[in-house]
Amino acid sequence: xxxxxxxxxxxxxxVASYQSIEPPEWIxxxxxxxxxxxxxxxxxxxxxxxLAATTGQLRELAPRLLVSIDExxxxxxxxxxxxxxxYPGSAALGAIDDVAITEAVHRAMGAELAGVGVTxxxxxxxxxxxxxxxxxxxxxxxxxDPDLVARHGVAAVRGLHAAGVAACVKHFPGHGAxxxxxxxxxxxxDLPLDLLTDRDLAPFRAALAAGVQAxxxxxxxxxxxxxxxxxxxxxxxxxxLLRDELGFDGVVVTDAVDMGAxxxxxxxxxxxxxxxxxxxxxxxIGPSKGEDVTQEVRSAIVDAVRSGRLTEARxxxxxxxxxxxxxxxxxxxxxxKDAQVGLTAARRAIRLEGNRPHLVRxxxxxxxxxxxxxxxxxxxxxLAAALQSREPATxxxxxxxxxxxxxxxxxxxxxxxxxxxxxxxxxxxxxxxLVSELATHRPDIVLVEMGLPLWRPSQIAAYVATYGVGRSxxxxxVELLTAA
Length: 484
Prior knowledge:
Layout: H1 3-12, E1 14-16, H2 25-32, E2 37-40, H3 48-61, E3 66-69, H4 90-96, H5 99-115, E4 120-121, H6 146-162, E5 166-172, H7 193-200, H8 202-209, E6 214-217, H9 223-226, H10 235-245, E7 251-253, H11 260-263, H12 268-278, E8 283-284, H13 291-307, H14 312-331, H15 341-349, E9 351-354, E10 363-367, H16 384-390, E11 395-399, H17 407-413, E12 418-422, H18 429-441, E13 446-449, E14 462-465, H19 471-482
Parallel strand pairs: 1-2, 1-8, 2-3, 3-4, 4-5, 5-6, 6-7, 10-11, 10-12, 12-13, 13-14
Antiparallel strand pairs: 9-14
């Protein structure tokens, strides 16, 4: 095998990304040299027309290039990171529990992706969100019941596939029981194997049976399955469980190897090598990294082949699977975009407990918290903008901490309706303390929970659950609050 042939085999296993609107020269060279996929992020998207031109430019260089993206709807959007997603995310769809609407939302999302040249979506998340304090899954999951997650995961896969976009279910073998974030550290899921099998693997089995084209691995340690090794690097997880036992012969993509769980342990290049040895086909490199890290990964894989740690046959096997995925994409059907289905679904998902308020010069108190790295930087959330368009007298108070002094908040709220907006208040004691204290003085407040609705004080006038922070979720909440 000549080095050029080896280079092309190695390049095909890479999912590379960049941080600019225009693709840099190094990406264009790598695409011409057989790159497997370009992963798009919010840094690469200015408008639909610009994105379509970019993907067209890339495909002129390599017609069989896979253009991939993380587009889940709700909290995780790349196409609409500047304004928020027009599609509710998985938690909202799980709350509705109508597989027809889940399929329709994902068909519309897929049609929008296909319309701008995106062919591979790293979605849906089929993690069973069994840990309420999970900092990275939460509303990205359809719910905590494995049967519900399974049926909606299948519906999402069918919707994307109907639009000609290959779905990639994640994060195998399940990230829902984690209480820390693999972007920063290695979550250890100390689960009995039978619980993993019955609960966490159930949605993956259903998606495989439905013909999903790809599976993304998780950087989680499951001692009963993987020992002390993250699943991404574990032959027991990928080859023996996913391939041999579950019978999956599609493409396995790693979660980004520059995440802390890999980068801060074995290292990015070594992680890529170990993942390929374990049975992964494509190595994802996140958008926060550039040419140097991509070349580091390429060099590590080439060196592993030269040393005999990684065989040429393993790379050829990965390349054959990737080729079959490209063939599927090129022969897939197309669908038309449904511009209304997102808001329709968000309206169906919303829940109101208590009485709908009569708003008078509303004060919106938005309780800030740190979003995880799966969410695009700077993505807007909350109700302020949507409410101000209907109630021009609306004012906004943003809080990121509470020092125990409620008087300044009460003073700002005097003579106004008070709407407190939170995201996952159950995870933030300071938010619970603030809302509870405020409610003792203003029992007429409305709490709008835009994360998982797992905590509420008993004494408030109304509680609204949106199950996500997308633009459609906010619009539905404002419609509800301002209805005559």
